[in-house]
Amino acid sequence: MVAEACARLESDFEAESAHTAPRLLLVHDWPLTNARDAPIAYLAASPVIGPLVPFGYRRRDYFSEAGDAAGPSYSAVIAAPGHIVAKLEKEQAAQGGHYPPRFVVGEPATGRRRTDTTAALKLLHTAFPVLPGDAASAPDTVPEAVEEQRRARAAASYRLERGGDGERASRIAASLSDGYGCWIPGGSEQTEFLK
Q: Which residues contact 58 (CB under 8 A, 6 or more apart)?
């Protein structure tokens, strides 16, 4: 009877452990410091895996709440408990498709640094086409995603505002997400916002 109860407790523990095992989660608009982030602020306690990449630029406007600050925002990959990731995924699906997704669920976190970092970089490439470290192994040809952004930029002939380095990177990220990310002045390979 005791052995049967112990076996039942062990199986329940294993099932609960599998449910709460950490998963990689790409979070847009990081850090979680705005008033709208209060319900998910606990995610900031999760470890960040890999670098932060620019996501956009937070502006203060009429709808901003007290305490919301203007400035750059980033995309980050964190290792969050699996049951929380499942809850966030379900809530995001219920919001409908008129808002861009804030969370992208990745693979289960393995606890092995190299494996988790590789999976995190794969997720980050979906948020921003060029990551720190990509220059070390630059391809001979320009990636199709970059070419597509350049064509969109040239078609719209949109010029980015000049600002500080942090602000410029955030505005570039916002422009990339809107399809105005790159422009080739005079056909050169150097983009306008890198001058």
A: 29, 34, 68, 69, 70, 71, 72, 73
Is the previous residue joined to 31 through a cis bond, with omega within 30 degrees of 0?
yes
The rounded distance, in Å, linking the Cα atoms of 158 and 182 is 9
Tokens of 8: 């039942």
Q: Are 117 and 125 in contact (CB under 8 A)?
A: no
Tokens read off for 11? 């199986």
Give SS3 for 29: strand
195 residues of the chain, pLDDT tens digit each: 777 766 776 766 665 555 678 999 999 988 888 878 888 889 999 999 988 888 888 776 666 666 677 778 889 999 999 989 999 989 888 887 777 888 999 889 888 888 888 888 888 888 887 777 776 666 667 778 778 877 877 776 544 444 455 566 677 777 766 655 444 444 444 444 443
Model confidence, pTM: 0.60
* Nearest-angstrom CA–CA distance, 193 and 174: 13
Residue bearing tokens 């976190």: 109
User: In angstroms, rounded to a whole number, what is the distance separating the alpha carbons of residues 32 and 12?
Assistant: 34
Listed in sequence order, the residues at least 6 apart from 9 whose beta carbon sits closer than 8 Å to its beta carbon are none
Burial of 77 (0-12, 13-18, 19+ CB in 10 A): buried
Return the bridge partners of 27, or none. 76, 103
CA pair distance 27, 78, nearest whole angstrom: 8
